[in-house]
Amino acid sequence: MIKARFSPSLMTMDLDMFKEQISFLNGKVDSYHIDIMDGHYVPNITLSPWFVEQVKKISNVPISTHLMVTNPSYWVDQLIKIGSEYICVHAEVMNGIAYRLINKVQDAGLKFGVVLNPETKIEEIYPYIDMVDKITIMTVDPGFAGERFIDSTLIKIKELKVLREEKFYDYQIEMDGSSNRKTFEKIQKVNPDIYIVGRSGLFGLNEDIKCAWNQMIKDFNEAKSKLYSVIVVMNFLRLSKYKS
């Protein structure tokens, strides 16, 4: 059966219940996902390094900061000072500075992640793929919560898993975008290491974070059971065909 790691996207949490929600999730999740958007790379402005600092005051859970910005160097310097455990930058803005950014983050004892938009091919990061600690596959267009899930992006997760095994790479594979009851089963078929969950998958399920969490786990396990049943039936049919 599939074992999953969840990373709540704090952009979609109820900020009026910041301490209550973080305190509960601290004992449940593997990391927190914090989006920083500059209003240029994407037409939205969200969280900031200051928000990362506030989370770290009440949590020891690793933070993965997702930079949707045109000038990543400016933000990387701030996040290194704060100590964001993962700093993730879009491949599309790394041309000419990739090695410098990766080395700077890793030399500071932190981990570096690269993010691929739905249209961006894995080949774009081949020059430095062996250096990164995490690869995030956007399964929606970046910039806003609630975007439409793009099924074709899942093939990149499969390709990255094959590549990791063949080349003995050590990166984690993460998916970001519209991970919820409607999409859990199709995402589980490619089984990323980390599921980012936001409004539709977690925070929007119930005003009470405990109830929302329990509902998310129920939705995930129901999809997992359904997928497992399909796999069992398919294997039985293959075996029956082979015997005949």
Textual characterization of the structure:
The protein is of the alpha/beta class and 244 residues long. Helices cover 40% and strands 17% of the residues. It is built from 8 helices and 8 strands; from the N terminus they run βαβαβαβαββαβαβαα. An 8-stranded parallel beta sheet has the order 1-8-7-6-5-4-3-2. Strand 2, helix 2 and strand 3 form a beta-alpha-beta unit. It is globular. The protein starts with a strand and ends with a helix.
Largest sheet: 8 strands, parallel
Number of strands: 8
The separation of the N and C termini measures 29 Å
Overall 3D geometry? globular
Would you identify the regions where 5 or more consecutive residues have pLDDT less than 50? none
Order of strands in the sheet with the most strands? 1-8-7-6-5-4-3-2
Keywords:
about 240 residues; alpha/beta; 8-stranded parallel sheet; 8 strands
Task: Give the SSE map.
Elements: E1 5-8, H1 18-25, E2 32-37, H2 49-58, E3 63-68, H3 72-82, E4 86-90, H4 98-107, E5 111-116, E6 134-138, H5 154-167, E7 172-176, H6 184-188, E8 194-197, H7 199-203, H8 209-243
Parallel strand pairs: 1-8, 2-3, 3-4, 4-5, 5-6, 6-7, 7-8
Short description:
With 244 residues, this protein is an alpha/beta fold.
